[in-house]
Design goal:
mainly beta, eight-stranded antiparallel beta sheet, five-stranded antiparallel beta sheet, 17 strands
């Protein structure tokens, strides 16, 4: 089933041009983190090479309409689909002239009221146009499935950080294959295909979560098995949870903007009690000897 989905994804991928075969200079991260299972790297490893930079082309000048069967989570008119913790009404800032919302630092993460399992998610985001701070302090947010499986959002345009924490990373697990970030202030797109993990009746994991991510029209993860729920400076791990859960947008203290957020629940025909994927247990390494990443440094 997912092979057909992947084929459809290929139609969405634009042509790109490699700006540099090597990433930015190393020097950000940690050398004392725990070893990531089935990888040669530690979590947030200071020595892990960053992916090469590609130019994804110009930002869209118009906002595309969602598919007819999509659940619209945000169209620039209402926060009705979102809440803070404890059912508190959304306190982020509405930018009516941009059909966007903006993080109001300190108000907390936003959670979708709708619950999702396997899902296609589209969202558009922009980091602050004025560059402040660096590394993880610069234009930081994240999109979390089930409130626990994060795809990093970060200003990774000429910004050094650890490889598994830059934009498009499965945070603390895998960097993206390439850094397809646009400049600060420009609109960027994520098209995410998320397959929820499966647990048996005893709460044991029988199939991990899988992620395919297209960043600004560029494939950066292709059906990658997540190692577990996102952790900072710790190894990801799974714990049993419901078959559906909310999507979370992170308040990391930066005035990030979001627009045009919609989701399509997917029926992938995956059995909840048995692993039908012959590759379960193997980990997609993104060619993680990093031979295709060059020998530069942090992308951000």
């Amino acid at each position: 089933m997912f092979n057909r989905l992947s084929s459809n994804c290929a139609l969405m991928i634009t042509s790109v041009f490699i700006v540099s075969p090597a990433a930015l200079a190393q020097g950000v991260g940690y050398d004392d983190g725990p070893q990531i299972p089935h990888q040669q790297w530690r979590v947030h490893d200071i020595n892990r090479p960053n992916p090469p930079v590609v130019d994804p082309g110009p930002a869209p000048t118009t906002i595309a309409q969602p598919p007819s069967d999509a659940i619209v989570l945000f169209d620039g008119t209402s926060f009705d689909a979102w809440r803070h913790g404890g059912e508190k009404a959304a306190q982020w800032t509405m930018l009516h002239d941009q059909h966007a919302m903006q993080v109001k630092p300190g108000t907390g993460d936003l959670w979708s009221r709708e619950q999702f399992g396997d899902v296609q998610l589209h969202l558009e985001w922009a980091t602050p146009a004025k560059v402040e701070s660096q590394s993880q302090g610069r234009g930081n947010s994240g999109v979390f499935f089930f409130g626990r499986y994060e795809i990093q959002i970060l200003d990774s345009y000429q910004n050094k950080t650890y490889a598994d924490g830059q934009a498009g990373a499965l945070y603390g697990q895998y960097p993206p294959m390439v850094n397809a970030c646009r400049a600060p202030g420009e609109w960027q797109t994520y098209d995410i295909f998320f397959e929820a993990p499966r647990f048996n009746d005893d709460g044991d994991l029988v199939r991990p979560a899988y992620v395919t991510l297209i960043h600004n029209g560029v494939l950066v993860h292709n059906h990658v098995a997540m190692l577990g729920a996102t952790q900072h400076r710790a190894v990801a791990s799974y714990s049993a949870h419901d078959a559906t859960g909310p999507i979370k947008l992170q308040d990391h203290g930066n005035t990030m903007r979001f627009r045009n957020i919609w989701a399509r629940p997917l029926d992938l025909g995956i059995d909840h009690d048995h692993d039908n994927d012959e590759h379960h247990g193997e980990h997609h390494e993104h060619g993680d000897n990093d031979s295709h990443h060059g020998d530069g440094g942090q992308g951000g």
